[in-house]
Amino acid sequence: MTNQSDSFKKIISHAKEYGFIFPSSEIYDGLSAVYDYGQNGVALKNNIREYWWRSMVQLNDNIVGLDSSIFMHPTTWKASGHIDAFNDPLIDNKDSKKRYRADILIEDYVAKIEAKINKEVSKASKRFGDSFNKEQFLLTNPRVKVYQSKADGILKRMGKSLENEDLADVKALIEDLEIACPESGSKNWTDVKQFNLMFATKLGASADTAIDLFLRPETAQGIFVNFLNVQKSGRMKLPFGIAQTGKAFRNEIVARQFIFRMREFEQMEMQFFIPPGTQKEWYEYWKEKRLKWHYNLGLGEGNYRYHDHEKLAHYADAATDIEFQFPFGFKELEGIHSRTDFDLNNHEKFAGKKLQYFDPEKNENYLPYVVETSIGLDRMFLAVFSKALTEETLKDGSTRVLLKIPPELAPTKLAIFPLVKKDGLPEIAKKIVTDLKWDFTIAYDEKDAIGRRYRRQDALGTPYCVTVDHQTIEDETITIRHRDSMTQERVAIKSLFKFVQSKLSLSELLKKL
Ligand code: ATP
After folding, report:
1. Is 169 exposed, middle or buried, given 0-12, 13-18 or 19+ CB atoms closer than 10 A?
2. Do 267 and 218 contact (CB within 8 A), yes or no?
3. Quick one: which of 298, 320, 235, 286 has its CA closest to 56?
4. Whether residue 35 has its Cβ less than 6 Å from ligand 1
5. How many angstroms separate the Cα of 134 from the Cα of each of 144, 330, 391?
6. What's the Rg (C-alpha) of the chain?
7. Neighbouring C-beta atoms of residue 441, cutoff 10 Å
């Protein structure tokens, strides 16, 4: 077992033990790749969603919200291309009977080459010390150059074969690279087949009149079909955006990475409608703006990178992923896609209705182009949670487990403790809770020794603990203990609201954007 998988296991078990994430229907042994958010998980998830929503809808006067249904008219998915093209290439290993996504097997192979490059870089950086120039090293080191060109060649060939639907070549590539089944080590593969990821269901009571429906695989189409409704009712002028968050469903072939790849998950998507011809500049604009949104959380800028697509989806003329360093390596967290007028154009054709925008300045009708930003809320949760979980060895040799969640996103903002359960201290502590609970999520705890109470809150990610002691009775001050540094300071009760407001409110985080 590698260290990496050990740390990932710790993340999963911490999430369960502290009420963040449970396997779905666990008493029936769970349901594969479906998870439930517990009492603390739902609070963190809501806060992340709120950070996204307010940064999009509240801070941009040309972006509005929407909440469209999960069920949509079935022709929607014909028009969007999902019935014909929303497929993943699957391959089975004949010996282990395990099923894989062929593209992911190949990408994992490439990731191993990239790991070798990184190893060379860290070796060289140790050797050269301060004078090390990473960019130059990557461009000139002969070994790195060989690795890089091998990785590029593989991705290029895969991209081309997938684009041309040449599945035989995808299999040939797996064989040429001698990729073995990670479970069994066997190289005995079936042919590669396409597999449609949409879940089908039925609407209507009787079998003969029921209509076949799909659970939406993305929230975006609800935005496209409502484009004119929103534009007309809101008298919106281009450029403008429509944002929505909601559940999406995909029958993923391989779903073995906790909440990274689920069958039911939540998306936060924004479609930005623009005049044709301006897509390049808006694509660059949103690429930068979204990365800034991520950086603002302080999880470490080195944990993000762009990955521009070689193989473009059926709807896109440019696409990039913002990748994040998850416990299992750099993987897609968010997609930014220049979708042209592909969707509106097809909905016009399939619905037989005009979806054109009348541009009052140019005095003409046209179909807008679209730049989309699309992020998985659950993946964002995993990004925050996995970077937050920390194990520290303290001076006395004991270990402390804490969640360094960005304070503004923490499920509980403040925990209030009376030092002892008598002498009027609980009453003062409860009064503080009553005063602050209108604006912040506050916990009250009077059980166990104070040190244990601190540790409990550390493990939940509560940024500050407030203790009411005997001095409080005399001078109306309390101590505030900081989660990350464990330092304490004494402040007046009456300044507490301001303190919390300045350190913990989402508005402060948004102002830094
Ligand atoms: P992947 O290549 O990982 O399958 P994708 O390119 O199919 O992802 P998009 O269709 O671009 O993903 O969806 C936008 C976002 O939705 C992704 O960046 C990701 O954060 C999230 N997402 C997609 N599929 C899942 C899933 N099965 N579980 C959780 N989140 C998902």
Report:
1. middle
2. yes
3. 286
4. no
5. 12, 19, 31
6. 26
7. 16
Tell me the two tokens of residue 131: 């004078």
Q: Is 335 in the pocket of ligand 1 (CB under 6 A)?
A: yes
Cβ–ligand 1 contact at 378 (below 6 Å): yes
Report, in this order, helix, strand and coil percent for the chain, each rounded to 5: 45, 25, 30
Q: List, in order of start, the domains of the chain with CATH numbers.
A: 1-79+197-389 (3.30.930.10), 87-195 (3.30.40.230), 394-511 (3.40.50.800)
Residue with tokens 């998850």: 326
Give residue 396 CA to ligand 1 midpoint distance, Å.
Answer: 44
- Collapse the DSSP code of 244 into the 3-class scheme (helix H, G, I; strand E, B; otherwise coil) and give the result: strand
Cα of 500 to ligand 1 centre, how many Å? 35
Query: Which tokens is 123 given?
Result: 């070796």
- The tens digit of pLDDT for each residue in 392-447 reads 999 999 999 999 999 999 999 999 999 999 999 999 999 999 999 999 999 999 99
Ligand 1 atom index nearest CA of 374 = 14
In sequence order, which residues have a C-beta less than 8 Å from that of residue 235 and are 6 or more positions away? none
pTM for the model:
0.89
Continuous segment of H or E residues that includes residue 250 = none
Sign of the torsion formed by the C-alpha atoms of 256, 258, 264 and 265: negative
Averaged confidence pLDDT in the chain: 94
> Which residues, in sequence order, are bridge partners of residue 215?
71
343 Cα–ligand 1 center, Å: 19
The rounded percent of the chain whose pLDDT value lies above 90 is 90
Residue 176: both structure tokens together: 């040429």
Decide: 290 in ligand 1 pocket, CB within 6 A.
Answer: no
